[in-house]
Amino acid sequence: MSEIGKTGATPMEGDGKRILLILGSPKRTSLCHALAEAYAQGARSEGHVVRLLALGEMSFDPVLHEGYDQSQTLEPDLLDAQRQIHWAEHLVFVYPVWWGGVPALLKGFLDRVLLPGFAFKYTGPLRWDKLLTGRSADLLVTLDTPPWYFRWIYGAPAHRQMVRTVLGFCGIKTRRLSEFGPVRPASETRRQAWLRKAETLGTRA
């Protein structure tokens, strides 16, 4: 875990909203990295405290080997991730859509971290406590598919998964879902416009 965008003064913990950026791309560099940095710069300019979890730099097994039938010891990086999620008031997930869903690394992170007793607690048939209630989220999502095609032809499965069956299930309310794509044919001018948009989103955190 690290703070992101360290240029300039770092705000004190009590000065602004506590924001946790979760970078879900396993690549070393990508548009997602640049979008996360831009968002952080915007948020920091408004006095918010921003921390980063870059999943590609963390050490953990993304496979939940026995499902929830048996407990699986959490690695130190995952224990720290749970502490950071508890610390945060606002979560920002930045990730690409691959094969219509989130990258395997991000899915594995969610499987391992959002555990019963931490993120939710079943209380009966179709009843559960949402243990992360009170937190909000922004989603910054890159796609190679045109966003309109992803929504209307494919049904936006990655969006529905994250907003409804993951974050919503745990009580985290998604405030904004911002799409950036198609990425491959995008000009440098277009990419710079996306970075400015991400920075603006950060100022509105």
From TrEMBL:
InterPro entries: Flavodoxin_fold, Flavoprotein-like_sf, NAD(P)H_dehydrogenase_qn
Membrane-spanning intervals of the chain: none
Any coiled-coil regions, as ranges: none
Residue span, Flavodoxin-like fold domain: 17-193
Keywords: Oxidoreductase
PANTHER family: NAD P H OXIDOREDUCTASE-RELATED, NAD(P)H DEHYDROGENASE [QUINONE] 1 ISOFORM 1
Similarity comment: Belongs to the NAD(P)H dehydrogenase (quinone) family.
Protein's name according to its UniProt entry: NADPH-quinone reductase (Modulator of drug activity B)
Organism expressing this protein natively: Pseudomonas cuatrocienegasensis
